[in-house]
Specification:
five-stranded antiparallel β-sheet, four-stranded antiparallel β-sheet, Archaeal Type IV pilin N-terminal domain-containing protein, Flagellin/pilin_N_arc, membrane
């Protein structure tokens, strides 16, 4: 479209072109806002869409305390060259306890997203007192603690002894019983065992913490006389304890740590079997 102004011919912008420019600017702004929103969404952790059963409570427990293993270290005397046992290298180590039917709460995954036991935490409360445990919390009642051998074959001893020549393992109080593992295997049995409260029980797959539809997991509790208790060691090595009460008034909340979403909650009722 042409206009005549001051005897000169000029080109004027078409209204259609103006509208198109406005649309382009609007689209660009929308794209930038959408991109920012998308980036913000990447940092937002949302909880899993999962359906869990009501927990089945197991009040019975069958825990077998681990055997006591005696470790005897032998070394060569520097002066005489004779081999003898080293007092500083004699000590006892508890094998991990065996849990056959530990009491606690059993959940079944009924449908929805898979969940990782490492992302869960359980809080228990009773009479304004409470405790929170997660996958990394250690059960003090079954854990034998971290184990590091005092000596290994080839190490140099002190107190007049030379090089460690051999290390023997035996069952404390039953020396005639054969030990079918080495010192390294003993350390592996103790240090690499999971002593936590969250355990996948069906199907039992070693090192698998993912719970899918149809799978079951259990939140263990500890022995505390008639009712349950929790005796947990946290990441700082501090032991915390909590005891449940008979009857009602004991609450549990299962939640997803990354998102804070509650996956289930309810009350626990403990029958008083004191007089049984």
């Amino acid at each position: 479209m042409k206009k005549i102004k001051n005897d000169r011919e000029t080109e004027a912008a078409s209204p259609v072109i103006g509208v198109m420019l406005m649309l382009v600017v609007t689209i660009i702004i929308a794209a930038v806002v959408s991109g920012l929103a998308g980036d913000m969404g990447l940092d937002k952790k949302t909880g899993p869409n999962v359906v869990l059963s009501e927990p089945v409570l197991d009040f019975d427990s069958d825990v077998t305390t681990g055997d006591l293993i005696s470790v005897t270290t032998y070394a060569e005397d520097i002066e005489t060259g004779d081999e003898d046992w080293v007092q500083a290298g004699y000590y006892n180590v508890h094998l991990p306890s065996t849990v056959n039917d530990q009491h606690g709460l059993t959940f079944t995954h009924l449908g929805g997203d898979p969940i990782d036991l490492k992302d869960l935490q359980m809080s228990f409360n009773s009479n304004d007192l409470g405790i929170v445990v997660d996958y990394d919390s250690v059960r003090a009642q079954v854990s034998s603690g971290a184990f590091e051998p005092v000596y290994e074959v080839g190490d140099s001893c002190w107190d007049g002894w030379g090089i460690v020549t051999r290390i023997e393992l035996s069952y404390y109080g039953d020396p005639g019983r054969e030990v079918d593992f080495t010192l390294d295997e003993l350390a592996d049995m103790i240090n690499n065992k999971h002593y936590g409260y969250f355990v996948k029980i069906s199907p039992e797959t070693e090192d698998d913490t993912i719970i899918r539809t149809g799978d079951q997991f259990k939140v263990y509790t500890d022995d505390g006389g008639q009712p349950w208790s929790i005796v947990a060691i946290n990441d700082a090595g501090i032991t915390q304890s909590f005891s449940f009460e008979f009857g009602s008034g004991n609450n549990w909340i299962l939640s997803h740590k990354p998102s804070g979403e509650i996956l289930g909650q309810g009350d626990l009722v403990f029958p008083d079997k004191t007089n049984e």
